[in-house]
Every structure is written in C-alpha cells, then in structure tokens.
Design a protein that fits this description.
single chain, pyruvate-formate lyase- activating enzyme, globular, 17 strands, alpha/beta, Arc Repressor Mutant, subunit A, 3-stranded antiparallel sheet, 9-stranded mixed sheet, 38% helix
C-alpha cells in the first residue's frame, strides 16, 4: 500500500457547501435519503441556529478557502421560510468568502402552499431551483407516493418563471410501474415544454432501506423497455438542445449544475445539517477525509457545533483514492482533464498507469487529448470500467 506521505497537494480543490434540511411532508416509498416526516411543528428556528453553529465549527478546516457553490437539499427545503434562508445565507457570507455570482440552489417540491414562496426565495440570493416533479401523470405520482398532482407540478413551474428564475432543474423519473414508452416520452415532452435549463432524468431504482425494497411495485418495466425509453428520451433531449454531460444529467449550453460538477470532478465540500456528508482535502498533512453528521434531527440539533455531532470521520487512503476519484469523474461523459487527477488526489497519474492501460485495452477508457474519459462503451458499461479500479484496490 502506498504510504500516506507520498501524497502532496500543490493546489486545493474548489470548495462547495451542502446544507441538508431533513423534513418532508411525507416520506416517499422509493427515497433512501435522510428524510423525516414533518409533524405539526417543524423546529425551523432551532434548526437554523444549529446549522449556524455547525458552520462555525467547520471554519478552522477551511480557513482562507472560498465557497464556489451552495446546494440546499433534503428532505424538502422549500418547507422552510425565505426568512430562515436569508438569516442562514447572511451568516454564510459573513464568515466564509464566497465567489461572486456563485450558484445557490434550493430543492423544492410542487404544492400550492409553497409556490408563493418562490419570489421570496429569489430575493434571499437563491438563484437556482431544483424542482422534484418526477412525473406529470396523476396515476404515476400516486404510485410514487408523491403529495402533489400533475396540475400542481405545472403550476409550480409556472411560478418559477414568474418569480424570475432563469436557471432551474426539473427532476424526472422513468421506468415507473406499468409505464409505457409513450407515457415516459409524454412526461419528458411536457418537462421540455417548460424550458428548464437543466433536466435530471433518471430511472426508478429500488434501493435498500426503502418501503419499495420490501414492497416492490408490480409491473416494473423489463430491461428491453427501459432501454427503449432511455434511447428515445436521449434522442428527444438532444433534439431539444440538451447535452448529456453526466449519467443522468442533461443541460442547455453552459447550464450544467456547478455544484454537482464539483462533486464529479472530485472537489471538496462541507456538509452541514442532519446526516450531511462532507469531503475535505488538507494541504497541511496531505490528507483527504470524509465526515458525516448525526442523522436524527433532534440529536443533531442538540450537538451541532460540537464534536459529538460528527457521526463518522474517515481518511481516504492513498490506496482507495484512485477508485474514489474515478467513481466520480467517469460519471461525466467527457471525463476530466488528466492533470486533474494529481490536483485532486495529490498523487501522480503514473501511480495508476497499469489500471488505466487495462481499461484502455478493454476499450472502456480514452486517455487521448490529455483527458481521462469513458469511451461510448465505457459509458454504457460504467460498472465494468469502475471495477478495474476497485478490484486492484482491494488486492493492494
């Protein structure tokens, strides 16, 4: 195994900030995120107080580094008021240097009780929304356990436009129970008609620790139908001017999610909030570590800002970091510049030359033009490509 002190960071990665809001009106049966059903009262003020303490406790780990993007996810962050986000974002700007005009994204779910908030969110400095539509079909939405219907989804997107957001994402699922190709394409055409700048178009998957895992929906599409939906969807998106830049992400020109790009390019990010995860590189000891916070909101609020709020903290060893890097970077259709490997891992690209050449020989990886990128075959069979880097790590 490569010794720890063989790593050396000549430049630290960009730094993003992720903020987790853990409450939802109702837990969706397919959701494996850290979300909790909201009761009659959400302790909004207390939770924002906890977030501020959490941010303050992280400052020594990132002195002098600027925040390049902020993403407020959940849960359903749009349950909180604009007043809370104004207080939180004002504190962030007071204690952390931020890039001018940085992307600040808020996840929101449709529902008439939220739509009048969009204009107020815009005034706080939130300049991008990510709307959890999933489908415009009422029967499919009911099967997914969503609390909105198709009409509310349409109204919510109209309100996004009226509130002045010129940059927003729509989340859309396909391969839903009993869904036909025609139905999936109709959903996608509806989404495109609202002129989003970004679409997250992803297949329904059954994840462990979800209701669907123990109560699998009937009539899930077969693989051939899933492939047909995916193929026709990609053609439709391309014709509409959307470029696929990641496995499930499509954007108009220059409208990629800057926050998610930082993840996939193995950048750093602070994780603030109940169950939030972070990744930080340190130039003083040339180490990279991951940290997560307590998942239960009550326990998190009690301990936020203290060491007791940390659930796990693990170093990413030199023997693990090549797989960690590739796990993210190879999700990007155009991969990354070769020099990014040394910058983000602190290790020379020569240290994984054998793995790279094996992937190239198998026709899964392209290293021409100073880039590391999956071939068309590698992008289609991404798990096979990643296995090359994982297997050798396990044998290190």
């Amino acid at each position: 195994m490569m010794p720890t002190d063989s790593r050396q960071f000549t430049v630290l990665p960009p730094l993003s900030l992720y903020i987790h809001i853990p409450w939802c009106i109702k837990k969706c049966p397919y959701c494996d995120f850290n979300s909790h059903t909201a009761g009659d009262h959400i302790p909004e003020d207390e939770y924002v107080d906890a977030l501020i303490r959490d941010i303050n406790s992280e400052l020594p780990n990132v002195w002098g580094r600027r925040i390049s993007s902020i993403f407020i996810g959940g849960g359903t962050p749009s349950l909180f008021s604009a007043t809370s986000y104004e207080r939180l974002l004002s504190h962030i700007h007071a204690v952390l240097p931020c890039l001018p005009d940085m992307e600040v994204t808020l996840e929101a779910n449709p529902g008439t009780f939220e739509q009048n908030k969009f204009s107020d969110f815009r005034k706080t400095g939130i300049n991008r929304l990510s709307i959890g539509i999933q489908s415009f079909d009422d029967l499919q939405l009911a099967a997914l356990g969503r609390v909105h219907n198709g009409l509310e989804a349409r109204r919510a997107i109209d309100m996004v436009h009226k509130a002045g957001f010129d940059n927003f994402n729509l989340d859309l699922m396909y391969a839903l129970p009993s869904q036909t190709t025609k139905q999936a394409i109709r959903d996608l055409k509806t989404a495109i008609s609202f002129k989003p700048t970004h679409l997250s178009h992803y297949q329904l998957t059954i994840e462990p620790n979800t209701f669907f895992h123990t109560h699998v929906p009937e009539k899930l599409p077969e693989n051939d139908l899933i492939w047909e939906i995916q193929h026709e969807s990609q053609q439709l998106l391309s014709n509409a001017g959307f470029q696929q830049y990641e496995v499930s992400a499509y954007s108009q020109t220059a409208r990629q999610s800057q926050h998610n790009l930082n993840y996939w390019q193995f950048g750093d990010y602070l994780g603030i909030g109940a169950g939030a995860h972070g990744k930080i590189s340190r130039a003083d000891n040339n180490q990279v570590y991951r940290v997560s916070k307590l998942r239960q909101p009550k326990a998190y609020m009690q301990h936020a800002g203290q060491a007791a709020a940390i659930s796990t903290q693990d170093d990413i060893t030199p023997a693990q970091i090549d797989f960690e890097f590739m796990l993210n970077a190879l999700r990007l259709k155009q991969g990354v510049e070769s020099e990014l490997y040394q910058q983000r891992t602190g290790q020379s690209l020569d240290s994984i030359e054998e793995k790279i050449q094996l992937a190239v020989t198998k026709g899964l990886l392209d290293t021409s033009q100073q880039r590391i990128k999956p071939t068309e075959q590698g992008f289609l069979f991404l798990n096979d490509l990643l296995l090359i880097f994982l297997q050798e790590d396990e044998n290190s």
